[in-house]
Structures are given as structure tokens and as C-alpha cells.
């Protein structure tokens, strides 16, 4: 009996011990799982804890927060395997954009490799305009975008030589001076360089000398329809741009048709055309149709409202984009300091250089916001002249210090705020260069504009068929001298034979060694960079909605 009780007691004791061991193991397992859960929670918290510095750090790897794909490396097959098919696909000329709404991510593909990663993650919205600049200083480039739905500023930071990080935010206003981020974009530089254009044919290394010289010429055409001379300029001489005047543009329908025909003809070439027009507002308005008048710069200067000036520029850009143009020879940055000036007048924002610089720069930015190239003019300043350079060669008897105190101020302000193209005036400055007008003067273009004002963009001449040039110089010879002085593009706005003469003169100068091909390459590089930056294409446009454009003008003028 005692033995049975002892055995029973032993069994119970063993059972109790086993239960305790099980409970301890269970608690240890729960503790371990709890630690793992805490670590996972911490990891997820770290992933979602997005700040400015983390975004910049990830961009160095070609990434954005919480996305496994790498710009310039991840193949489309890997994306499809991980995320499946996208919700929306947009096909462009040589690239494709896809959208993954569930991940709040858009991806750009080129040659089936991701080159652009865009994140619309809501946690990015807590990063504001001032946060970005405080963390990393001023961006390498500032761009603007505006359409019916958006009015945005784009802060572009170069991340080494491999990537660009773009912060896209609502444009700061007085009501909202420190907006939050809308989205970010990390772009692979080597792949992005070919945006909007074929990456093989646009390389300088594979371009013929004729193709390079053609890019240096901005030609005018005759007539209202595509003719043999226009086809020759595109197919034979491969000009880089075409300027249009009122005599080319009868009405909106004819204008769109002509531009579309020109773009179709140019499809045989590797580089899209610059398609330009003088659309300043006021008396210098070339676009056809029943468009409402946009105020002249003089009126904008009287109001002295930077926001209004920006909106006017946006209207000008919107008009050009609707017709199919991509370049506006505007705004005028000349200071109207001479009441006897016969050519500037109300085209200037006024006689105060600070106001001219402020308002002119805002008009420039407004034009750029519509993805239209803005050409600021007429460097180094056509305001203090008493003759019209269309008819004679004006003289401005000022030294460099005198120009710096007045004429150069608006140009310096525009250059510091992202000017892409500067037009050189046909004016003689005897105290700086007694022999050559500004368009042919190395002291003006290279020494003053490039070196002193640190301008690295595209330099274009005023029309070389103006009498300021043709009455004093051979146009072909003057064009060669202009390139030697530092110009990138020669504007020959009238006469097919003059365009051909300029082309042949430049080619002969290269063949003789007067101009090196390396010097030509410098200009072609800047021109290609400009075309890439604005993603120019040969895409056609449909009919122009004049009433829609006029409604935009009404809305802006009402705010005056």
C-alpha cells in the first residue's frame, strides 16, 4: 500500500515538474517572439520614418524610401515579378511610364530598365520646402511646371554624376510660402540624358560635321506652307531651329498644319527642332487667331507685381504650347533708360533695373513653367540706344562698370535664376570693343557674359539679316566671327540663300582650321543639353482651342 502511494506521489511530482518546465519554455518562447515583434515593429517604423537626409542618402543608391527598385539597374522583368502588372501605362517616344497606385509609385523605363523612380508616399508630405533647403542648401537647378491642375516648383539636386533627385512641390505663394512635398523622383543620369530623343543618333561622336553645323543655325522660312526650301533646310542642312513670323502664320488651323508638317519632315533627323516665335505680349505678338491681347511689359512694370508677371509668362507659354511651338523669344530685359529709343519702348518693364530684373525673371519662369524655352534679350542691353538695329548699328558709349550699374543687372538676375538662352544684341560698345558689335565680340560674349556673369547656357545672336550687320559686314563672315566670339546659334531669320551662305562659311572655316571642330562641339553640346532638358519631340498637336486660351487670359487680367 505504501509502495503504491509512493509511486502515485512520484508520478504527480513528475507531472508537476513537467508542467512547470512547459510553462517556462512557453514564457521564453513568448518573450522571444515579443522581442522579434518589437524588432519588426522597429524596422517598419524606421522604414516609414522618412526625413530629408534619409531621402538624400537613398538617392545616392538610386532609390526612394520603401521601394526595392534601383534607377538605372532594375529590369522590367524583376518589377513585374515582385509587383505584378501596373495599373496604368503611358508610352512616349523611347520610354514608358507605369503606375502602381497601391504602392504610390510611378516608374519610368528606358530599354526595359528603370531609369526614373517617383514616390507619392504620404509621409513625404511632412517634408517642406524650407526643410529641403535647410538640409542641403540651394538646388543645382530650379524648374517650374504648370497646367490646368498643377502649379509646381521642381528642386533638382545632382547626386554625384549618377543620379538626380527632384523634389516636386506646390509653388510657394504668399499664402503658402512653405509647401509640403507632392512627390519625389530619382533619375539615373546616364539614361535620363536621352529623354525625348533617340540615345544613339544624338551623340556628338556619331554626328557628321554637316549635322553639327546645322544645329548652330536657327533659320527663317518663306511662305505659309511647306515648300522645297523649307524641306531643304531640314533634310539637307539639318538646321537646329526655325523661327516664324506673321507672314508665315495665317490662322490657327494653317499654323498647326505647317508646324506638324515640319515636325513630320524632321522625323528623319535625330534631333528635334527648336520652333520659335516672338510672343512678348503687347505690340510684339505673332500668334494668329482671335487671341485677346496680353499687356505690354511697360504695363506690367507699372503694376510691379511679381506674381502677375509670372502669370503673364505662363500665359505666353501656354499659348505657344497649344500651337506646337517650343521656344519664345521673350522676355525683353532691356532697361528703358533712353526716351529717344525707337525700338524698345513699351517692350521694356521700365527704367529701374531692379524692377526690370525682378519682373523679367518672373515672366521667364512663367514661360518655362509651360515647358517652353525662354530666350532673354537683348544682351548686354539695348535700352540706351537712339537708333533701331533693324536699320542701323547702334552705339552705346558705356564702360563695363557703367553697364554693371544698370544694363547688366536684369540679365545677371535672370541668369542666377535659371536663364537657359541669352540673345546678343547688334550694338557697338566702343569702350569695350571698338571694332566688333556685341554679336561678334569675344569681349562681350566670352569675357562679359560667360566669365563675368558665369552663364553656361546657350547664346544666340539677334537676326543676322538686320541692317546693323548687313550694311557693315558680310553676313557669312560675320557669322563665323560670332562663333569665334562665343555664340552657339546663329539666327538667320530671312532669305534661304543667306542661310545656305552662313552654313557654307562655317563649314569652310572648320575645313581651313580657322574654327576647330572641338569649338563646334562645345556649342552642339549646349544645344543638345537644352533640347534634352525640355524633352523636345516631333510630336504633333491637334486643333487650337482659342476660347480656352482667351479664358486663361481673362482669368489673369481679372486678377490685375
From TrEMBL:
Gene3D superfamilies: Glycoside hydrolase, family 3, N-terminal domain. It comes from the Bacteria. Its EC number is 3.2.1.52. InterPro entries: DUF4309, GH, Glyco_hydro_3_AS, Glyco_hydro_3_N, Glyco_hydro_3_N_sf, NagZ_Beta-hexosaminidase. Pfam families: DUF4309 (PF14172), Glyco_hydro_3 (PF00933). It is an enzyme of class 3 (hydrolase). It catalyses: Hydrolysis of terminal non-reducing N-acetyl-D-hexosamine residues in N-acetyl-beta-D-hexosaminides. Belongs to the glycosyl hydrolase 3 family. This is beta-N-acetylhexosaminidase. The lineage of its organism: Bacteria, Bacillati, Bacillota, Bacilli, Bacillales.
Amino acid at each position: 500500500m505504501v509502495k503504491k502511494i509512493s509511486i502515485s506521489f512520484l508520478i504527480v511530482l513528475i507531472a508537476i515538474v513537467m508542467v512547470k518546465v512547459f510553462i517556462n519554455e512557453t514564457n521564453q518562447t513568448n518573450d522571444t517572439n515579443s522581442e522579434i515583434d518589437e524588432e519588426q515593429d522597429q524596422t517598419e517604423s524606421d522604414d516609414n520614418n522618412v526625413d530629408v537626409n534619409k531621402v538624400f542618402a537613398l538617392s545616392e543608391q538610386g532609390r526612394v524610401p520603401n521601394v526595392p527598385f534601383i534607377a538605372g539597374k532594375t529590369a522590367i522583368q524583376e518589377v513585374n515579378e515582385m509587383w505584378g502588372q501596373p495599373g496604368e501605362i503611358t508610352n512616349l517616344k523611347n520610354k514608358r511610364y507605369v503606375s502602381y497606385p497601391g504602392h504610390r509609385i510611378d516608374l519610368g523605363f528606358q530599354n526595359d530598365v528603370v531609369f526614373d523612380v517617383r514616390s507619392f508616399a504620404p509621409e513625404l508630405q511632412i517634408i517642406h520646402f524650407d526643410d529641403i533647403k535647410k538640409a542641403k542648401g540651394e538646388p543645382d537647378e530650379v524648374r517650374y511646371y504648370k497646367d490646368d491642375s498643377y502649379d509646381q516648383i521642381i528642386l533638382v539636386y545632382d547626386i554625384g554624376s549618377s543620379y538626380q533627385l527632384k523634389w516636386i512641390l506646390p509653388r510657394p505663394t504668399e499664402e503658402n510660402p512653405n509647401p509640403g512635398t507632392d512627390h519625389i523622383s530619382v533619375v539615373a543620369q546616364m539614361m535620363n540624358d536621352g529623354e525625348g530623343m533617340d540615345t544613339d543618333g544624338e551623340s556628338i561622336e556619331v554626328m557628321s560635321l554637316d549635322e553639327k553645323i546645322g544645329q548652330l543655325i536657327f533659320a527663317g522660312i518663306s511662305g505659309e506652307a511647306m515648300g522645297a526650301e523649307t524641306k531643304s533646310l531640314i533634310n539637307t542642312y539639318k538646321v537646329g531651329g526655325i523661327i516664324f513670323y506673321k507672314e508665315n502664320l495665317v490662322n490657327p488651323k494653317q499654323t498647326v498644319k505647317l508646324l506638324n508638317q515640319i515636325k513630320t519632315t524632321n522625323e528623319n533627323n535625330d534631333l528635334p527642332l527648336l520652333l520659335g516665335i516672338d510672343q512678348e505680349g503687347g505690340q510684339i505678338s505673332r500668334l494668329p487667331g482671335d487671341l485677346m491681347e496680353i499687356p505690354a511689359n511697360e504695363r506690367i512694370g507699372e503694376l510691379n507685381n511679381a506674381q502677375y508677371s509670372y502669370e503673364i509668362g505662363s500665359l505666353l507659354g501656354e499659348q505657344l504650347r497649344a500651337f506646337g511651338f517650343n521656344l519664345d523669344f521673350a522676355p525683353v530685359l532691356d532697361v528703358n533708360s533712353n526716351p529717344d529709343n525707337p525700338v524698345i519702348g513699351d517692350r521694356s518693364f521700365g527704367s529701374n533695373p531692379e524692377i526690370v530684373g525682378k519682373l523679367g525673371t518672373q515672366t521667364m519662369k512663367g514661360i518655362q513653367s509651360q515647358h517652353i524655352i525662354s530666350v532673354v534679350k537683348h544682351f548686354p542691353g539695348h535700352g540706351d540706344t537712339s537708333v533701331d538695329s533693324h536699320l542701323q548699328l547702334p552705339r552705346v558709349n558705356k564702360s563695363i562698370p557703367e553697364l554693371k550699374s544698370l544694363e547688366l543687372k536684369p540679365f545677371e538676375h535672370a541668369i542666377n535664376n535659371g536663364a537657359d538662352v541669352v540673345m546678343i544684341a547688334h550694338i557697338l560698345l566702343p569702350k569695350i570693343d571698338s571694332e566688333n558689335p556685341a554679336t561678334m565680340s569675344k569681349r562681350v560674349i566670352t569675357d562679359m557674359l560667360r566669365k563675368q556673369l558665369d552663364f553656361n547656357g546657350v547664346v544666340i545672336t539677334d537676326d543676322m539679316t538686320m541692317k546693323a550687320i548687313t550694311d557693315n559686314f558680310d553676313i557669312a563672315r560675320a557669322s563665323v566671327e560670332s562663333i569665334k566670339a562665343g555664340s552657339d546659334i546663329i539666327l538667320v531669320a530671312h532669305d534661304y540663300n543667306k542661310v545656305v551662305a552662313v552654313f557654307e562659311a562655317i563649314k569652310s572655316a572648320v575645313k581651313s582650321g580657322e574654327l576647330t571642330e572641338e569649338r563646334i562641339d562645345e556649342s552642339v553640346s549646349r544645344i543638345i543639353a537644352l533640347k534634352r532638358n525640355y524633352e523636345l519631340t516631333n510630336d504633333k498637336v491637334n486643333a487650337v482651342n482659342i476660347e480656352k486660351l482667351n479664358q486663361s487670359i481673362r482669368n489673369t487680367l481679372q486678377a490685375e
